[in-house]
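User: Just a sanity check before I run the rest of the batch. Below are the structure tokens for the first item. I only need the designed sequence back.
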């Protein structure tokens, strides 16, 4: 009997591994679908609020997407720094904490420079009123997302 189980163990391990892999792929697919759906909603929201002409739309989205990707990178880096701080704050020296502060402020400054750069790029093909609407639309879309989370009673992670 032990021999039979031993012979079947690799098969069971393989099946368990395949089931885990399938579940993981399905979760990633669902996450990608949610991300895609969110991006579609954001695009529709911006198109409605910015009232771009077809020519403006063709120029706007590549520039905005590049801006968003760069801003997301800065945000992710800043959030990684904060996660590092949260998990190590009881063990950091004053010098190490001071270095983290400097890096955090650097991320804020980098984001400000990025905003300045892309505001100029938007102004190359959009009137000022539509550039200002970009900032307003971003804020309104964030408010809409937060309200949507509240309405769906989505749980936010607890702070330690």
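Assistant: Here's the designed sequence for the first item:
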């Amino acid at each position: 009997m032990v021999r039979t189980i031993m012979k079947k163990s690799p098969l069971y391990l393989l099946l368990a591994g395949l089931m885990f892999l399938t579940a993981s792929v399905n979760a990633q697919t669902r996450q990608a679908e949610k991300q895609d759906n969110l991006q579609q909603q954001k695009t529709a929201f911006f198109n409605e609020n910015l009232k771009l002409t077809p020519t403006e739309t063709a120029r706007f989205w590549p520039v905005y997407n590049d801006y968003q990707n760069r801003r997301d990178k800065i945000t992710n880096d800043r959030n990684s720094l904060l996660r590092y701080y949260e998990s190590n704050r009881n063990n950091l020296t004053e010098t190490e904490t001071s270095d983290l502060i400097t890096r955090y402020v650097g991320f804020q400054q980098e984001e400000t420079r990025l905003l300045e750069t892309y505001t100029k790029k938007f102004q190359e093909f959009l009137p000022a009123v539509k550039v200002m609407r970009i900032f307003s639309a971003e804020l309104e879309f964030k408010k809409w997302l937060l309200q949507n989370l509240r309405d769906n009673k989505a749980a936010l992670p607890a702070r330690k």
